[in-house]
Amino acid sequence: MGLSRIGAGLGCLLGAMVAPAALAFTDADAVRVLTFARAQLADTTAELPGVTRSPKSSLSNGTWTTVANTDRIAWTQGFFPGSMWLMFQVASEPIWRERADLWTRPLEVQKTNTETHDLGFKMYTSYGEAWRLTGNTYYRDVLLTSADSLATRYNSQIGIIDCCDWNPNWNIPLVTDTMVDLQLLLWASQNGRPAYRAMAINHALKTLADAVRPDGSSFHYVDYRADGTIRSRGTYQGYSTTSTWARGQAWLIYGYSMMYRYTGDARFLTAARRVTDYYLANLPADLVPNWDFNAPMQYKDSSAAAIVASALLELSGLETDATRRTRYRTAALGMLDSLVSPAYLAQGTNSPGLLLHGVGNLPAGQEIDVSLIYGDYYFLEALLRFNPRPNYPWYAKLSFSRSQHLLGTNNTGTRAVEFDLTPLRDVIDGGVVGWTDSSTEVTSFSRLNLAVRLSTDGIYQARNGAGWSWLRRIPYVRGRTDHFRLSVDLVARRYSVWVTVPGAAEVQLVNNVAFRSDGPFINDLGRAAVIATTEDSEFRVNSHRVYSPKQPPAVARAEKLPDALWEQLDVPEPFSLEPTTSER
Ligand code: GLY
């Protein structure tokens, strides 16, 4: 990663005729950061005294400030559960679903809160992610009630969501932040509340007309009289009336990209371009803005960079103009490249967060140069927009509950399974990769219907009825990655396993052997477990996928999936039944 190269690249980004600079951000960077995020989030769940308060910003002693989940005006409580939902998306580990659910449910009290415009932030990041990733109607019902509450704040005379009753200086205000709250209304408009679509569209158009300046920069707030005339406009968290607060601009970029995704209305694509082009043209070399583009006080705001990186990965996937598409994607990857560098990543520091150098509210003297839970959330979202299904390793776990990964409920009949396995010790004392169905909790080895074992003899074996079988002695070797392919017949309760070691042809380990004789009855291939017996991480599994060999997937893996497809998280990757060595 080279920041000077990114800075040089920015000139290219803005010169449409010049090819963009090559960027260094890769899947490996995303996996590295997700691994760090996993540890940080786990530590935070362990450190917090209970689920009544959610983390907000870092303190110099390495802990988080927290906000009561019942606080009606605070806007940040959804980001911690939301981050855990994103972590569940990474590797489908039930532990992250459990943790995310535990921190989501305390926010149900907010669903009838009509005192804030920020219900979109609070509820879409928590309950919205929960609904997207689980399809559990409890989450959807809470979201719909929340949308009903937010809709009560719509002022039909002016055509805006009224934002901030708490500020006595304002009459009927909007802030640029509210653009992101609109997602709750747009989602609801597609889920039984069609009237909310017009509210979101009207609010977005009014914000565009009155908060966005001709050059694409923005006021933070606009305050209206009851008749819709402007009373005042300026800033609350930025530097001055004429300046542009970086995060306020980030909310506009995110908001108009999201509006265009939901509506397909070209006015929102044009708006997204305008606010984005101002933002990109005013960035410093490392693509992380000062907290306000016009302020003399120099404090980077990494949260703005994370929000914009995520937004531009979305916008570049929707953009109709090829040159802009490349420019926005290149900019987003440059931002991520910067954020994952030691200059911004909290790894190796005492921060409990992911990103250093965020600014909450500088004019109020609050949260200056800290980690911010919302910066971390959008950072994770950006990583998963870069690749919704990162090649995240499944490290073997001693704990049965932590060893499991959910595969969905659709894997019935005959299925193919593939994965790569890398031993990380010389002798692995019976560690297994095993499978059972989606409803079977793995509490012991005996719950696994089929399994591949790394035996104490140093060879691979496969479960066969009451014992273990192998047709050939295939030794496993520390650090060498072998490729496995299974053909599983869930009706006959039989399976075959093939192994490919690097540089050699595929060989069969077992042929049509029986599921474990005392295993539970299973309906689907819904759960994989990667279990260690000596220490955590004694081996790892990569690129695990399960698919129907009879129905090759029609949808190839995309770097940016539309939201409708995100709901089908078990869309497998393209495959060949006889992959070439180079594909492994
Ligand atoms: N929505 C409040 C902020 O961005 O700080």
Report on the architecture of this protein.
- With 584 residues, the protein is an alpha+beta fold.
- The chain has two domains: 20-386, Glycosyltransferase; 394-569, Jelly Rolls (Sandwich).
- 35% of the residues lie in helices and 18% in strands.
- It is built from 14 helices and 21 strands.
- The strands form six sheets. The protein has a six-stranded antiparallel beta sheet, with no helix packed on it.
- Strand 8 and strand 9 (366-370) form a beta hairpin.
- Helix 7 runs antiparallel to helix 8 and helix 9 (246-263) runs antiparallel to helix 10 (266-281).
- The longest helix has 21 residues, at 27-47.
- The protein is elongated, with a radius of gyration of 25 Å.
- The two termini are 27 Å apart.
- The relative contact order is 0.10.
- It binds glycine (GLY).
